[in-house]
């Protein structure tokens, strides 16, 4: 297969022995003279031939007879693409079944259920590095990056030569822009084993963070030469091509990722971004919808979909508002959703709703001690809005805050305050500045 397809191509290689293998194994199965490992092999052959229902049945029989063959559980997991299929399996109770369920829950994006299973298993297998790594991956999927970093640091202390799952750790360091920690991790895995897909992926992330996207692609391609089904590398390579403005190559990489795993929300999101760059919002929207279906707790995906609805070609502002509301409820760390909600309601001439979101955005900026144009915009709108509503006391609070600034907003605030004093007293302003000496 490798000779026919090259390092990254698709292969049309066919295993001509499958028919005879299936015939032989089916006969053994029928005569009940097959052991659990033979059943595992039979399941593999059936899967290759596309007979998934029978493959599942045979693999269930294999793991029920001999629960310690993790390879059989992994093949069974690849055949369970929905919760309904999983619930239909007739599995015997065994502690290995708990490992299987924890793993498949993660695959089916049921992260809280997966985390709960792994935490229960940790009580039984206290010093298991595997379980610790899986807990970190589940928390990574829940975007709990601070806790993930702590778990991986602890894991590296216990197992300093570990390469497995360290690509997830590198993704966290990349997201948090921890240059020195990512550099240290990259050097560490090179010294341990540089010919591992995870090692290449970590180095790719390191070069990406440095802005050296061409070098980054070289390492992601190297990871794929070592394992052409390495999902993370396809997706990350797609991101690099987006950065390099090579949209066709990005689309191809993302498509390969969703071919391997149709539930990979990052690849669907990447496809949405790529089509948005090409000015095709209808296509982009289709892919963004796919990504939020598989990862509804990620605010970035809802924001991307909202921005797509806002585009000139679509201009579906009510739909954009719904998406921004979902983003605001999903811990929008980039603080985009509340501001956009306020602006869209303002554009739709809905001042009460706009004021509500400006107020919420202002509270958040104060809590995070953030300054900037968004803060001034919120104060200006609220001051003007409450003055129009004749709620002068509230308007005065926002005007007074605007007096701390030096730009045109200060003069606007002075003007608003004068206007409110006139309205409250019923007399023209008798400012001392207006009298001649």
UniProtKB/TrEMBL annotation:
<dbReference type="GO" id="GO:0045842">
    <property type="term" value="P:positive regulation of mitotic metaphase/anaphase transition"/>
</dbReference>
<keyword id="KW-0131">Cell cycle</keyword>
<dbReference type="GO" id="GO:0005680">
    <property type="term" value="C:anaphase-promoting complex"/>
</dbReference>
<dbReference type="InterPro" id="IPR007192">
    <property type="entry name" value="APC8"/>
</dbReference>
<dbReference type="Pfam" id="PF13414">
    <property type="entry name" value="TPR_11"/>
</dbReference>
<dbReference type="GO" id="GO:0031145">
    <property type="term" value="P:anaphase-promoting complex-dependent catabolic process"/>
</dbReference>
<keyword id="KW-0677">Repeat</keyword>
<keyword id="KW-0132">Cell division</keyword>
<feature type="repeat" description="TPR">
    <location>
        <begin position="231"/>
        <end position="264"/>
    </location>
</feature>
<keyword id="KW-0833">Ubl conjugation pathway</keyword>
<keyword id="KW-0802">TPR repeat</keyword>
<protein>
    <recommendedName>
        <fullName>Cdc23 domain-containing protein</fullName>
    </recommendedName>
</protein>
<dbReference type="GO" id="GO:0051301">
    <property type="term" value="P:cell division"/>
</dbReference>
<feature type="repeat" description="TPR">
    <location>
        <begin position="265"/>
        <end position="298"/>
    </location>
</feature>
<feature type="repeat" description="TPR">
    <location>
        <begin position="197"/>
        <end position="230"/>
    </location>
</feature>
<dbReference type="Pfam" id="PF13181">
    <property type="entry name" value="TPR_8"/>
</dbReference>
<dbReference type="InterPro" id="IPR011990">
    <property type="entry name" value="TPR-like_helical_dom_sf"/>
</dbReference>
<dbReference type="Pfam" id="PF04049">
    <property type="entry name" value="ANAPC8"/>
</dbReference>
<keyword id="KW-0498">Mitosis</keyword>
<feature type="domain" description="Cdc23">
    <location>
        <begin position="5"/>
        <end position="136"/>
    </location>
</feature>
<dbReference type="InterPro" id="IPR019734">
    <property type="entry name" value="TPR_rpt"/>
</dbReference>
<dbReference type="GO" id="GO:0016567">
    <property type="term" value="P:protein ubiquitination"/>
</dbReference>
């Amino acid at each position: 297969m490798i000779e026919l397809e090259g390092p990254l191509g698709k292969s049309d290689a066919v295993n001509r022995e499958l028919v005879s293998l299936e015939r032989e194994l089916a006969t053994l199965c029928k005569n009940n003279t097959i052991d659990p490992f033979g059943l595992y092999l039979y399941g593999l052959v059936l899967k290759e031939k596309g007979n998934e229902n029978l493959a599942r049945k045979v693999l269930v029989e294999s793991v029920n007879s001999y629960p310690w063959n993790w390879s059989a559980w992994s093949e069974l997991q690849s055949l369970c693409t929905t919760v309904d299929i999983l619930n239909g399996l007739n599995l015997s109770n065994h502690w290995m079944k708990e490992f299987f369920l924890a793993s498949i829950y993660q695959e089916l994006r049921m992260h809280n259920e997966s985390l709960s299973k792994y935490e229960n298993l940790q009580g039984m297998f206290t010093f298991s590095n595997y379980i610790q790594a899986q807990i970190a991956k589940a928390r990574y999927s829940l975007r709990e990056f601070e806790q993930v970093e702590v778990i991986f640091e602890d894991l590296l202390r216990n197992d300093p030569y570990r390469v497995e799952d360290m690509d997830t750790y590198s993704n966290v360091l990349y997201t948090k822009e921890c240059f020195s920690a990512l550099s240290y991790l990259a050097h560490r895995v090179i010294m341990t084993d540089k010919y591992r897909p995870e090692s290449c992926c970590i180095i790719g992330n390191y070069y990406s963070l440095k802005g050296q996207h061409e070098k980054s692609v070289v390492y992601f391609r190297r990871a794929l030469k070592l394992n052409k089904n390495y999902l993370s590398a396809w997706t990350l390579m797609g991101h690099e091509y987006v950065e390099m403005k090579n949209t066709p190559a990005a689309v191809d990489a993302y498509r390969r990722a969703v071919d391997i795993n149709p539930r990979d929300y990052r690849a669907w999101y990447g496809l949405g971004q790529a089509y948005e760059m090409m000015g095709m919002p209808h296509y982009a929207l289709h892919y963004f919808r796919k990504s939020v279906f598989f990862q509804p707790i990620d605010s970035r995906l809802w924001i991307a979909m909202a921005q797509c609805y806002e585009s000139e070609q679509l201009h579906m502002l009510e739909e954009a508002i719904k998406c921004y509301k979902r983003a605001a409820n999903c811990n929008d760390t980039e603080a985009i959703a509340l501001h956009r909600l306020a602006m869209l309601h303002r554009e739709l001439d809905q001042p009460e709703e706009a004021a509500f979101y400006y107020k919420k955005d202002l509270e958040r900026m104060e809590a995070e001690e953030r300054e900037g144009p968004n803060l001034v915009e919120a104060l200006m709108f609220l001051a003007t809005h409450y003055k129009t509503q004749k709620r002068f006391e509230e308007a005065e609070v926002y005007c007074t805050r605007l007096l701390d600034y030096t730009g045109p907003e200060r003069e606007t605030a002075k003007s608003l305050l004068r206007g409110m004093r006139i309205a409250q007293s019923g007399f023209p302003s008798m400012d001392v500045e207006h009298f001649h000496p």
